What we know:
By secondary structure, this protein is an alpha+beta fold. The protein has 4 helices and 26 strands.
Amino acid sequence: MNKLLVGMGLMGIVCLCSCEQKAPPPNPPVPVNLVAVSAQPVLYFDKYPATTQALNQVNILPEVQGYITGIFFQDGADVKKGQKLYEIDARLYKSALETAEANLKVAKGNFEQAKQDADRYIYLNSYNAVAKQQYDHAMIAMQNAKNQVSGAEEAVKTAKTNLSYAIITAPFDGTIGFSQVKLGNVVTIGQTVLNTISTNNPMAVDFLVNEKQLQKFEGFQKNTKGNNDSLFTITLPNGATYPLPGKISVIDRAVDPQTGSIRVRLVFANPKNELKVGMSCVVNVRNLEKVPMMLIPNKAIVEQMGEYFVYIAKDTVYTEASADSADKKVSDTVPLPKLRAVQRKVQIGQTVGGNVIVLSGINIGDKLLVDGVQAVHDGSPIAAGNKKKGGEKGTQQEGKKDN
């Protein structure tokens, strides 16, 4: 009997203790900084990887065969049209020219002799004093001699041309590269590349755009008033902006069906030869749209698996029954923090300094979390007393709507 009473007493104590246990306190709200989303005119540039190209560039090939006997320029120098660059051994071609000129003299002598004979037979034939056959042969001989003179003259022209090809000159003003041959090298007609020469002022810049943007760039090309000084610029490999603006020169004739892109060419003045052929650069195309856009701090963006999200503050009242209420009446409920972080998927556009353009996913007037986003998740309680920075005191609350 006593044991029974003792057991009942212990059970009562256990029940009493269990009833007096309280629920753990809710997680404290995360302090954050909020900013109201607004729309404003934004000046930004669309960026495209690009490469500089020469407007005119040729490989210098020999048109006669022989040894290189002279090089008359410095590698990498600027050259003028007609400037002497290379000399190929010309002895054979000089000899061929002299032979052709001698054959021309012989042919002209033969023609004079044939012409004199023909004149005599013409005179005799007028008096019927010569056989018709002899007269015809004299006419044919004179014509053959005349044709031989024409052939000899053409041989002289060919020999002169070959001799002139032994001297290679610059086809236009430009910059020449490193010589691919040295003195004494044998070059082959149309095969051996001697050097490359290219123009450098102006300089072309080629880049690819998506076919969806083709109409916009065609509009740039047609509307010369839109090609102002800040529409097209380029960023050099060292990060500096090239000081002179460019303009559209050519849009390629066709879209690449495999990539859906088309090539666009800009032209930039290059008076100081700062742009070199083959440089990698970035084309900056200034945005001409005047419609205000939503611009938010870049640090408010959270990237997850290639998608972009932000958190906005929402006034949502959550209530929960207290753990020590046996019947969980409404009067026994306790309020949870009113502000919650709500995750929103957004589509972003161009980055502008430390900010980024948001194309969709949020609305003007939304209260955006810009600090403390790493410590929250969808539905996290937040305190908009503003997160302290470097010992600064928190500022007044933002982002609550009037109930």
